[in-house]
Amino acid sequence: MKIGVVGAFNVYSGYGMDSIGLALALGRAGHDVYPLPTNISLGLPRELAMMLCKVDPHALDVTIVHEPPSQLRPRETIRAISRTVIGWTMWEQTVLDPADMHDRTDVLQDLDMVLAYDPVSRDAIQTYDPSARIEVLQGGVDADPLPYHHRDWHGTFRFGMLGELHTRKDPFVAIEAFHELRQAGELADAELVLKTTKPGLHPAIEQAYPGVRVIADVWSRAQVVEFLHQTHVLLGPSRGEGKNLPALEAQLTGAVAICTAWGGHTVWQHPEYSPMLEYTLEPISPGSKSQRARASKEHLKQLMLQRYDDREGTRRMGEIASRTIRAQCSWTSVVKRLNRLMMVAMDD
User: Fold this and answer.
1) Fewer CB within 10 A of the end CB, N or C, for the chain?
2) What is the pLDDT of residues 71-130, one digit of tens each?
3) Are the C-beta atoms of residues 107 and 70 closer than 8 Å to each other?
4) How many CB atoms lie within 10 A of CB 202?
5) Domain 2-140+331-347: which CATH class?
């Protein structure tokens, strides 16, 4: 099929990375893919750059608009050349209201189908527009470059967080959990490494919280992979996620991911290989009807200590995670499911 992919194509955002992964996976599956960028950055894969050299198509079988909910309505020119248009999006809170959609009521009307990354996103979008046809399909992960990595499980035990560690990622829940365990005499040979590309985690944290390291820098892909190889447990006490790419990538390499059991995490979580972090729901701001998760610090402390004390069990969990995430969450697997949904949308 001739497929257009509308969205950001960059290497610094979740939507951008998933647009890249989606276009490449569709091309590798044999489709004729046309990236239609709304935003673009340097550092794109050569394979994607070659797609960008194509002449604009005169007709498309399917166009996938991979954008936040408020930006899902396709341009008239895209709708005119597309037999079928599918929106693909995520929303990390319980309510999607007109203000979030810039008070527009027509955002979803030109879409033949909407794909939501997770059940929380689906329910929020369905409440906003009960007439929308919505299916759950989470974006994937490029699994081939991330084989299982044999770690040293007997030396320094490393907990880590990776990404844009802003408020939604809630890094201070992890910092406080680690610090309180250390104050109680636990985690003697452990460290917590926070790798962020966002301001907000001041280097002085390292002096206030012994054993915590803060790295605020832009890394190459090779540096990111090395970080994953050195991490035993990746922490994701996030208030909301559509997917959490760092958690998936860490598990592919054999790390264990402890993540809030809400939103996008629940699509791939299972207690056999990924401890499910308890939470409560809280308003996103005072008086707001929309809620998102707040991870339990006490439960996080319990799970961190279990994984630290039972290193052999943690190693086995990482092996299971690597196999399971590879089979279920790779872009290859996701595109197989997407193919079926595109055929359904085209037939209706």
Assistant:
1) C
2) 999 999 999 999 999 999 999 999 998 888 887 778 898 899 999 999 999 999 999 999
3) yes
4) 11
5) alpha beta
